[in-house]
Amino acid sequence: MSTMAVPDIAVAPVDEGFWTRSRKVGLTLLGLGLLSAVLFGALATDQQARFTLSDDAAGAALEINGTIGAILFGIITIAAGAALLAGVPKRWFLPVLGVGLVGFVLSFLCWQVSAAPAGQNFMPLVNIIRGTFILALPLIFGALAGVLCERSGVVNVAIEGQLLMGAFSGALFGSISGSVWVGLVAAAIGGAFISLLLAVFAIRYLVDQVVMGIVLNLLAVGVTGFLYERLMQTDAEKYNSAPRFSNWEIPLLKDIPVLGPALFRGNIFLYLGLVLVLVIHIGLFRTRWGLRTRSVGEHPIAADTLGVKVLRVRYRNVLLAGVVAGIGGASYTLALYSFTKNMIGGKGFIALAALIFGRWNPTGALLAALFFGFADQLATYLGAISSSIPSQFLAMLPYLATILAVAGLVGRVRAPAADGKPYIKG
Fold first, then answer.
1. Per the CB 3.0–4.6 Å rule, which of 81, 169, 371, 413 could disulfide with 190?
2. Using CA atoms, how far apart are residues 122 and 323, in angstroms rounded to an integer?
3. Residue 47: left if φ>0, alpha if ψ -120 to 50, beta else—which one?
4. Residues 6 or more apart from 318 whose CB is under 8 A from it?
5. Residue pair 79/98 in contact by the 8 Å Cβ criterion
6. Considering only 82-91, 130-139, 236-245, 264-273, which range has the smallest mean pLDDT?
7. Residue-wise pLDDT tens digits, 73-88
8. Taking the complete model, does pTM exceed 0.85, yes or no?
């Protein structure tokens, strides 16, 4: 068996001086901690903030005085910021950052939950975790589609269109056939169709990949919108009433406190998304296919010299990415909703941000998608408890989290070296 090494690419070190990335983030955390301890502590009430271990107000709960909790978690955030500002070993950066962000969020929640109207001053953790995963599902599938493309050297801005075409195809063919499985296959084919166009024009005809992705998104919006008005609106019973996947309960695991009801009583898309993260991660970093994919994305000339069919690898992975994204689109129409025009609503672009936030790594993309899903779920929860925060701001929360994560938390990242660069075989 032959082996192939991916050439290392030399990157000149950057002298950041005193204000390193770690210290800048530490200063930001320090400010957030002061905001939490002072402002959130002042706005919180002496009512107990209850975090129930169920999906309603009943049962066991973690309780803390609202004011004390807001100040205490604010101090934890201050401590994390001070540690980063003082300088910590590089391997401790992410754990300390995580502690600081969790402290800030908990301080905020102590304020909001304790200040909620009587009877609403509780947060059901099972509901929050379940909602986070449901809202993150299209982002997980979309980000994985981005990983498959960009690790091969093809920029995938068309995730939005792939998700949308998958949602539409799943709804249409699932309704006509009366079968969720037919709908699922149709969704995969719909996403692959958009990917095929991306592959042909970007790889074969060398069209600018970013421009092509935007065009394909507009094409998907136009085609699905036209067919929606001509078919689904005129006869929704026949064309837009697809059956839904039921929830599957996993014995024993479903009885684990909090996580069991939230994660192991879900539908096929939840399990499939988590399995795909594991499979793609192992595939990329532990198999010959993954080695060839990464070599094509980093140094296609060297890969070609060693006998790798660069264009074939790119075609195959871009099509596979469309299948994954198409299934992600079906998580809307075969599990939750009926199809509506442009129902993805920008989630494909958030998936692209999750891909960058996760550093082109399947596991990192999963964590980033969950971060954005939690922001979305938190906005829904705050609206339900009549939060004093304006509803317009709550609607912006997931997108603000996206901007802050990509611009402020990721720091300096490097995409695969050949990402977006067409390869012309000599």
1. 169
2. 40
3. beta
4. 148, 149, 152, 154, 156, 195, 196, 198, 199, 202, 203
5. no
6. 82-91
7. 999 999 999 999 888 8
8. yes
